[in-house]
Amino acid sequence: MDAVTRIAKTCGSFDEVWSQDGRLSIIYHDEHSYALSFNGRNWSVLDDADEKTSAYLICSAAINYAVERCKNSGLSLEFVHEFLPTERKALMPAELLRVLLDDCGLGIFDACAIVVRCFGNDSAAPEIPWLHGVQPRTANLQAVLRDALKSFGFAVHDAYDEAYRSPPGAVENGSEVKLSIRSFGGVKSAKLCVYADGYSAEYDMQRDGDCFSCNFVPEKPAALWYRFRLCTEGGERRLCVGNDGHFSVLSDTPADGFRLTVYKRGFTTPEWFAGRIMYQIFPDRFGFEDASAGIEYHRALGQTPELHGSISEPVRWQARSFEKDYAPDDFYGGRLRGITKKLPYLKELGVEVIYLNPVFEARSNHRYDTSDYGKIDPILGDEQDYVNLCAEAARLGIGIINDGVFSHTGADSIYFNRYGSYPTLGAYQSTQSQFYPWYDFRHFPDDYRCWWNFRDLPEVNEQNESWQDYIIRSEDSIVRRWLRLGASGWRIDVADELPDEVLSLIRDAAKAEKSDSVIIGEVWEDAVTKNSYGKMRNYALGYSLDSVMNYPFRSAVIDFALGKKTAFELRDFLLGQYHNYPQPMYRCLMNLLGSHDVERLHTALAFDYDVKTLDRSQQAALTLTDEQKLRATRLQRLCAAIQYCVPGVPCLYYGDEECLDGGRDPFNRKPFEPSKTGLHNFYVQLGRIRSLSPALTDGEMRIITPSADIIIILRQTADEEIACVINRSSDYYNIPFNGTPLLGGCDAKLVPPMSVEICKLT
């Protein structure tokens, strides 16, 4: 980058001038101006100045430049700490206070709060006597700052710092957690306040000088929050969490607390799954073969499936002439044998896990309306085709994850049989049906509980013993049988609809059949704090799930790429998950950027508006200009690099490697025949880099944010350190460390605008 030059000033004296409305103005006398230059890392004084004056000028320039950059980034001054140099000098706190008070017009409390956020426990630095001869106003503010921090009762707690919380992160129940705060002399006593859903408790904190500590032992797994109640010289205060999720803010009233996740002691997740690359396949739209026999099978049942003549035909999204509503029963002929043939292609992408959308017999092409859990849909093949797929995948080191749609069945099924398609006596047909107790009828037979009022998806009563035996508990249950036939785990559809105890039964049954099987929940929010139907769920506490679909990750990464979030906000999100999820689950989080339920990644990145707000006719007509395609492809590279360089399981939705476009269902489910175009080679490269790097698959994570547009993800083991540099800005970025480029996309350590580089540090 080009050198930055600025002017900094010293003064001989100053006057305080108070206006009639109580505003303070500072008038400086005998000012001297000096030119300084910044080379991207260090400031230097260009004019003649003695050592002490130079020390002040360099600090003053750094403070003023940080404030300037903060404002230019469109951020409030609360974020100025993001722009300060890593090395903090002792005279910086008072100089920042001067700038905030005199130049920015802040009040003393707000200015002190920003100083504390910038310098933490070092805010009340020892007085520097020589400063009076260089900048008497800043020298005067040294004492003002110390007195204000004390009188207001400021204190510091950082949930990510072991000096304040040991150990940091989520803990097993029964573990001791030491929580500490440090004050600036104005706190007389302190209490730790712990609370959760339906629970609260307070604990006295022990004082040691200006440090207050409490050893807390959470006995039961729970999503907890905590804050501190302070008795200060100015009255009672609360120390709560700031917007970044870990650093404290002082408040007069109770505000949001710090998070503390307590999970079940001994909770583990499958080691084979953690850190692996996953590929999601919508079975009808991948691996095409002749599916006409399966189509005829469904027609013989009285159903109306339609087989496309070519995969180049658009997906059907409108009702046919004989239909009142659109029915998703158009097929392209994707089959299990076709997927088996594509395994070498997936292996080239570095894939070690395949998540299949439902494969069991159903009326629709998405198959979330299960007709028979015990049978592969004939359009896809048969049971032997499934066994062969699992066996060949296992030979290549790939595990197969089934989609378990257990909260509801199809109305057109052997269990409900609303249309009489099957020879079994269904619940809809008779109260004497063996399946009748599975469902909740308000008025038999037409008024029954169904998923989100879709009458073709009657909900089951998961507490029913015969349903639990059939799906979960018996030796030949659905959960166990398909694991026995070769599956490596289950993705649980709409996990919110299944009670915690039922999810636990599924996990226990799966582990009993195959100890290293993985259970993934469809959860759209933070799994630790998820509340559904008025109840806190225990998804992440070690009872029911090994992993969840990480939709919040998708939102955060795409928002960063589109400029809706800063690098600082993305960092705070990533570190929040890192610290708040139990590590066994965190290492297995399904980090997706696309799926069958959201618009295609490439499409989401192409527009400045939210595609899902368009109706189906508008989405059907949606096309991308060449400029939009170029922008989306460049942004997708940034998103994919983040996805492959953070801990967890990166999940690639079929076709995203070639920038497949499409809005919401059904346009995100187009047929895909690989042609190794688009970003295919880039994803192959990412997969190879990740698979060969212990640091990327299982290393610790640190994050550096040089600016609002640049984020650096560092992954480290004892033997290796990898840096992923994401440059969203319109300028070149100079990589600040030595290393070997692995992507090969930068020249002379410069990362171009809207680009990424992954380096192995040396």
Radius of gyration: 30 Å
Query: Main beta sheet, described?
Result: 8 strands, parallel
Count of helix runs: 19
Q: What does the overall shape look like?
A: elongated
Note poorly predicted spans: none
Could you walk me through the main structural features you see in this protein, from its secondary elements to its overall organization?
The chain is an alpha+beta fold and 762 residues long. Among the domains are: 4-151, no CATH class; 156-263, Sandwich (Immunoglobulin-like); 408-460, no CATH class; 699-761, Golgi alpha-mannosidase II (Immunoglobulin-like), CATH 2.60.40. 27% of the residues lie in helices and 25% in strands. The chain has an 8-stranded parallel β-sheet with strand order 31-28-27-24-21-18-33-32. Strand 4 and strand 5 form a beta hairpin. Helix 10 packs parallel to helix 11 (500-513). The longest helix is centred in the first third of the chain and has 22 residues, at 51-72. The relative contact order is 0.07. The mean pLDDT is 96.
